[in-house]
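Lab notebook, bench 4. Still working through the backlog of constructs that have no structural model yet. Next entry is a single chain of 322 residues. Request: give me the structure tokens for it.
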Amino acid sequence: MPNLSGKNVLVTGGAGFIGSHLVDKLTTEKVRKIVVIDNFFLGKLSNLKEAKDHFDNLLILRHDAEDYDFMKATLKKHKIDIVFNLATKCLPYSFVNPEETFMVNVNIAKTLLQLLRKKYYKTLIHFSSSEAYGSAKTQNIKEDNPLDPNTPYAAGKAAADLMVMSYLKIYDLDVSIVRPFNTYGPRQNEGVYAAVIPITIKRIIQGKKPILESDGNQTRDFIYVDDVTRATVDIYKNQKTRGKIINIASGKETKIKTIISLITKILKYKGKILHKPERKGDVRRHCANIGLAKSLIGFKPTIDLNKGLRYTINWYLNNSKS
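Model written out:
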């Protein structure tokens, strides 16, 4: 079975939310070198402070992972064995710049697949998104569920996944696709383009009313970030995952209004909630079937929603600038 010991690893989007937590996880896996490539669209150097403090051989490069020549030179110079591809532009940005949000996913996948095909590195662990499915047509979404993206971001993710799978059918490539559902936890972007959990926490900390869009009955499958990064490493380590798309989620459906209620309860907020219309392109239902992850890597979430929200809220309370 593959292992990470002594490997040179590259993480695109490694200064972002999930990417930085993955870098933290990789520092515990006896890798030889970690190279982070991030254009810092939303990534932060501060997200990598823990990794830098605990791992000497960490290199951070500010650049776009779409750049073929740069990626080729970097892979060659640092003798990279494995690429974890998490670079993207976030979903809300697709309402501002739909073309760029779509194309960045496709262009990065194209660059990494070309370089993998030409053997500049050995293994690609590619990050997808549950948004590629669109709204759930069945109670639990399996990996073979039809793709029906609601936004340019989701369409770009779906297109990149299809490109990866098409290369797999033609070339003998060592690739797995991780498809996480709604990941949350410390360091999630709480500024521009923030998701529901960090923006709700931030607004309450700042003395503002939390926002509920639509009726609040839209659902998501929330998964704590440490469970996602642990699963990602386990997916790399298990050769049976190659050529497969694997859902990583809690397998539980939670209403958005329930999430906001839990956050207000933990923060002891007693005020009113600001109601806004439904956001265009918003997925109505999401709940994953995680049977494949269970069978292949023995995946089981370890942090439940209440505990994960408390961890997350405590982090924002300790790191808030307001």
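Notes after review: The chain is about 40% helix and 15% strand. Residues 65 and 108 are 6 Å apart (CA to CA). Flag for follow-up if needed.
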